[in-house]
Amino acid sequence: MNPFNANYFVGYVNHVSPQYVKVHFPSSTLLNKHIFSGEEFNGGLIGNFVTIEGENLGFIGRIAELDLPEKERLSLSEKAFQSSDFHPTAKVEILLSFDYFDSSNAQKTLSSFPNIGSKVYICPSKFIQKYVINFGEKDKQNGLLINLGHLTSNKDTQVKISQQAMFSRHCAIVGTTGGGKSWTVAKLIEGMIKNHTKTILIDPTGEYSTLTQSSNTDTESAVLGSEASFSYHKLTTEDLFFLVKPSGRIQAPKLQEAIRSLKCVQSNIKNISYFSDFVTERGNLKKDGMDVIKFERFCYEHPELDDNHLNFDIKALERQITYECVYNNGTTYGNQSPNDLSYCVSLITRIGNMRKTKILQSVLGLDKDQERNDLTKIIDDFLMPTQKDKLLLRIGFEKIGFEYQAREIVANAIGTYLLDKSRKNEFRHFPIVLILDEAHQFLNNKVVDEYFETSTLSAFDQIAKECRKYGLFLCIATQMPKDIPIGTLSQMGTFIVHRLINYNDKEAIKQACSSADLDLLSFLPMLGSGEAILTGVDFPMPLILKIDEPEIPPDSKTPVFSNIRSYKEMSGKVL
């Protein structure tokens, strides 16, 4: 198709800069709506695409600004609009260049620019369609596309995104409440299911439960606290520290020693004759009178004790801390030290409270309820290449409360578990996508206490920084990009940005997204529901599109106010 048909002509280039060009319209009538070859054209609308006829290359641009010369503004009136002709100008952002003889060969980086006097045309939808129908695909990589929506400037121009370009450098979906973020997540999941790509979704609110409640047999759900639990044995020592928050001077070393002692019991230290008398019937190691050097030698000879996981009976931890509060003269452990024990009383209390908190008992498997499945086993079974019929695993957090920062710690533990599997190259041949909804709840979370040193839950940050080459791709969705660490956000290669109003949120996107210039960001506060800016390092140009409704929408509707009096009359109930 010829994009330089005279019927599409609107003006001439009269100013060129590295970021944009200015266009002079010889007549304002050229910007009026008209129909040609069955297609409706609106040349004078912000956001419309134009083509520019350069000397050696053609260019595609987007109208970012319209203006009238100063002298013509002074004569504006209703009568003048009816009888006079004006000469508007436009600021056009250059998006890409293309070869005249092979228009499919588009280049994102500009090696040349239009000349002064170059002709400018309205871009027909069929011409722009071929750039967005396989958007981001390079050399027919694998043919996996996701039908995401259509251009806001033309409803007939469908946008099909390369799945490889979308996720291979990680992806961020951002936008304020009601902007359409949840629909976008559901639409991407829908596309990946059709492409037979395994996806794990961490769902904090349960709004995506509709995706797994359908008749689809390729999805499954694991709701933590009711259907599944993440065994505390798979937590790390750092996770336990986050949960109980030991102070640094006395409590942290005693907790570390207690963990090591319980691991010694788990390693059958009682089978060694010297140590057998120090192991109690309740599974503790009572150190009073024990030889320090022999004990340290045993620990040195058993490197498995340095395993970072909590492979011991956590019910014995409180008593073990008490047994750790003893004197140590360098050769023999002595009697109980009252000072050390008094320092550790608050720690012992916190561990006891943690173990007895109902929500943690169900989420971490502390109550050993046999009806709940182990989440790590569910994940392992889901990720098996032989399980080709299971494509989406939704991990629901809707039953988890906010005590002890359990949500953040369990989510971080899941991230750590997948991070360890990726480092073992388990995803290199069968890449997976990990979607983290409401990511601001889990990223940049610091566990803070009056005496506990501040630490950051960093599993997802590590995934963003190193797991692309391992085949574990991260997709985060958040209402507040300003709360995402800039180091994590800068690792996102693709951005789908819905309406943003807050200045700090827009600045966070601006800093992380190289192609998000001021002209593009100026559209953010005005985007309607479901509209978004798509930009990324693997895409030839940024697009403004409308996300299509997913086949199975998430449960994200806002409750509607109702007349409670009429409800009482209809129900016949007293509220």
UniProtKB/TrEMBL annotation:
Pfam entry (one): DUF87
InterPro entries listed in its UniProt record: HerA-like, HerA_C, HerA_central, P-loop_NTPase
Domain (Helicase HerA-like C-terminal) ranges: 432-538
Swiss-Prot/TrEMBL keywords: ATP-binding, DNA-binding, Helicase, Hydrolase, Isomerase, Nucleotide-binding
Gene3D superfamilies in the record: P-loop containing nucleotide triphosphate hydrolases (3.40.50.300)
SUPFAM superfamilies in UniProt: P-loop containing nucleoside triphosphate hydrolases
Domain Helicase HerA central: 146-261
GO terms of molecular function: ATP binding
Name listed for the protein in its UniProt record: ATP-binding protein
Species of provenance: Sporolactobacillus mangiferae
